[in-house]
Amino acid sequence: MLATGRDKMTRRQFGENVWLTRGVAEGAQYRAQPLAYEVLDSEEAVGRAQFEELKRAALEKEGDPLIILLGGREAQALYRILGDKAQTAEIDDLLKRLHVFTQDALAPMRMDNGLSFVRDFERLLGEDFFRKVKSFTPMQTDTEDLEGALVRYLGKLDSLGGIDIFFLGLGPEAGAASHLAYIKPGSGAAVGDLAGVIPISSSILEHHIKKFKVGGSKVTEEDEAECRRASHILMLGPAAILEARRIVQSIVDASTAPGKRQSYRRLLETEISNDPPHRLRNWMRIRASGCGCMETCAP
User: Fold this and answer.
1) What is the CATH number of the domain that holds 136?
2) For residue 28, is it within any domain?
3) What is the pTM assigned to this prediction?
4) Which domain holds residue 195?
C-alpha cells in the first residue's frame, strides 16, 4: 500500500503503464452531470473566461485555492493575463493565497531543462507570478524513484485540501480519441486512478520539442538531447480530475486540429448512464474483454 495522507493507494500495472489507484470500486461514487459549454469569439476571450473562473473559485473558498496548471495552447491567453496583472498589485490578494500544481511532466529530466513544462510556465507567467503565489509544486522528474516522487506529490496535493480548479485542454488524437492530461484510450486508466507513470514514444517527444521551439522556449543542445532520452510521462489520472471542485476545459485551436473537433463531438453525442453501479458493471465487462479504455467508453 502507498499512503497519501488521507487515503491509501495500490500500485496497478496495465502492460507497461503503472497506475496509482484507490481501486475500481471508487467509480461507483460518481454521477454523470450535463456539460455546460460556451463558444467564444477568440482565444483572448477564452483566457478572460478562465480568469473569471479562477476569481470566482477564490471568492467562494474560505481557505487557500489550489489550481492545476494547463500546458499547451489552451491556457496561454490566461497566462498572459495573469503574468501582466502579477506585475502590478491588482491581484496580489489572490496570488498570495494561491497554491499552484502542474498536471504532467516528462521524466527523467532535470527540473531546469528548457523543454520541461515548468520552464514553459515560468516563461509564460513570469517571475512576478511565481514570486507572489503561496506555493508552486511541480512533479519531480530528476529522480530515479519516479513513482515515489509522484506519491509524495499526491500527498502534498491532498494535504492542502484537494483541487479547486483543474484546468484541462484536449490533446489531438486520431479516431475521435483525443487525450486529457495525456490519459489516452487503451492506457488502462480506471476511474479510481489518481496518477500514472506511462512510457512515452519518440514521436510524442519529437512533437513536444518542435512545439516548444516554435513557442519561443530557449533550448540548448544539452536540453534537447536529455529530452530525447526521456522514457516516461508522469500524469494525474481520472480520479484527480473527477474529484476537482471545478473542471474548466478549453479548446482554442480546433480549426487546425480536426481530432479535437471529432473528439468533442463524440463527447457531446455519447449518452452516459446516470446509474453509477451500471457504469461500473460496464467498465468491468470491457476490462474483462481486454479493452483498456476509460470508463466513459462504456456508457
Assistant:
1) 3.40.50.1360
2) no
3) 0.87
4) 2-23+38-297
